[in-house]
Amino acid sequence: MTRAAGLERFAAFLANEGAEYAGSRNFDLGPQARSTTSALSPYLRRRLITEDEVVAAAVAAFGYEDAEKFVSEVFWRTYFKGHLETHPAAWTGYLALAAEGHERLATEPGLRRTYTAATEGRSGIDCFDAWALELVETGWLHNHARMWFASIWIFTLRLPWALGADFFMRQLVDGDPASNTLSWRWVAGLHTRGKHYVARAENIRRYTDGRFDPVGLDEYPDALDEPMPPREVLLPPADAVPDGEVALLLHLDDLYPESLPLGTARVACVGGFVAHADGASELVKAADEAAMADALVRAEAYFGCPASLIEKDWFGGLPIVTASAPVGPSAMVLPQGCLRLRRAWDEQAWPLATGGYSRLRKAIPRLI
Ligand SMILES: Cc1cc2nc3c(=O)[nH]c(=O)nc-3n(C[C@H](O)[C@H](O)[C@H](O)COP(=O)(O)OP(=O)(O)OC[C@H]3O[C@@H](n4cnc5c(N)ncnc54)[C@H](O)[C@@H]3O)c2cc1C
User: Fold this and answer.
1) Is the dihedral of CA 133, 137, 140, 142 positive or negative?
2) 354 - beta bridge partners?
3) Residue-level pLDDT, tens digit, the chain, 368 residues
4) Ligand 1: which residue has its CA nearest to atom 18?
5) What region does 7 belong to: left with phi over 0, alpha with psi -120 to 50, or beta?
6) Which CATH topology does 3-86 take?
């Protein structure tokens, strides 16, 4: 999991799948088949590569019109980030519901049986079981499979949505607090309230190229309803970068420090810390650690200063500067008193992400 590997994957996408993306992206042909999407999410999630560079390169390669669908999908990621930043209660609410779900598993044998069968790929629904195993084995699922999986979890198996989101966060190598929490809420009908996503057997047969023939799906469920929608808060302002020497702190939400807007600050030392998602699988932890190691090596070469995982007093009394960590595991343990920078991409897009996606979508031509 390195920036170089992300750039290589992206170059292959531009040369191959990219041209067909709009027409083929909804097909999940299975883990052994040719990909229909970029598979860049593990790199974008950690900002080993950034949204602005992939959008600029896709537009340069295909022209805006032909790149539009891909660009719009990248902006979904930006949208969810901005939305969770302004609705952090969606994250804390999810964490509380997931913890409550785990307590229920300890005391309710029926629920535990369904949950265990679902996560071990023994639900009896062919596609769902294949995806559960694929997720655990590879750490990844196609977007359409994530939608179907979440829908079957919630509406057919009637499992708590937060336990499903928690299962994804533990297993996905691109596990992302914003995209994951808000996508699960969206499938359940809690994001765009009352509008839920229903997995249908015919749609699954079609977009998996006939690999599956699921039976027993509940195709006419009601959306979930939770009494209190998450409250909106103001986007916290970013800090200004000081002049002179600073210590730069890296975390898993932003691992391309060479492109941070550091102004006239001079980076004298770099420290990094790794905050995994709760219960992260060994696959996810290994990806997190490899990504951090790669960023530290690059930072040391680029800034010409020592870079390592942080130890006590690593910053030598200098002001600590860090990329603003959006809501999630890194932000929850970021030391007090850090100066938090925000990239221009987030600064411009996040204020447009407080409601539904369409406001941000309409602004895309201006933003890029
Ligand atoms: C229930 C559910 C849970 C999800 N959990 C996560 C998660 O934890 N982490 C994560 O990165 N994505 C998540 N997604 C969004 C999406 O499934 C993945 O980003 C996408 O499958 C990644 O594959 P790709 O890189 O080949 O995407 P491509 O289709 O090639 O798209 C390019 C990039 O755009 C962004 N993107 C594409 N589709 C979406 C989308 N629907 N929502 C947000 N961003 C998108 C991703 O950064 C992606 O890498 C989830 C979706 C659902 C329905």
Assistant:
1) negative
2) none
3) 999 999 999 999 999 888 899 989 999 999 887 789 999 999 999 999 999 999 999 999 999 999 999 999 999 999 999 999 999 999 999 999 999 999 999 999 999 999 999 999 999 999 999 999 999 999 999 999 999 999 999 999 999 999 999 999 999 999 999 999 999 999 999 998 889 999 999 999 999 999 999 999 999 999 999 877 788 999 989 999 999 999 999 999 999 999 999 999 999 999 999 999 999 999 999 999 999 999 999 999 999 999 999 988 889 889 999 999 999 999 999 988 899 999 999 999 999 999 999 999 999 999 98
4) 143
5) alpha
6) 1.25.40
Residue spans of the domains in the chain: they are 3-86, 89-207, 244-341
Ligand 1 pocket, Cβ-based, cut-off 6 angstroms? 25, 37-41, 44-45, 73-74, 76-77, 80, 142-143, 146-147, 150, 168, 172, 174-176, 179-180, 183-184, 187
Looking up tokens 């799948």 gives 17
Residue nearest to atom 8 of ligand 1 (CA): 175
Q: Which two tokens stand for residue 5?
A: 């590997």
Candidate from 52, 134, 183 with most ligand 1 atoms within 8 A of CB, to mutate: 183
Do 219 and 200 contact (CB within 8 A), yes or no?
yes
**What letter does residue 30 receive in the DSSP assignment?**
-
Interhelix angle 51-62/64-86, nearest 10 degrees:
160
Phi, psi of 324 (to 5 degrees): -55, 125
Longest CA pairwise span in the chain (Å): 64
Taking the C-alpha atoms of residue 21 and residue 66, their distance in angstroms, rounded to an integer, is 9
- What CA–CA distance (Å, rounded) separates 126 from 112? 20
| Distance of CA 143 from the midpoint of ligand 1 (Å) | 6
CATH code that applies to domain 89-207 = 1.10.579.10
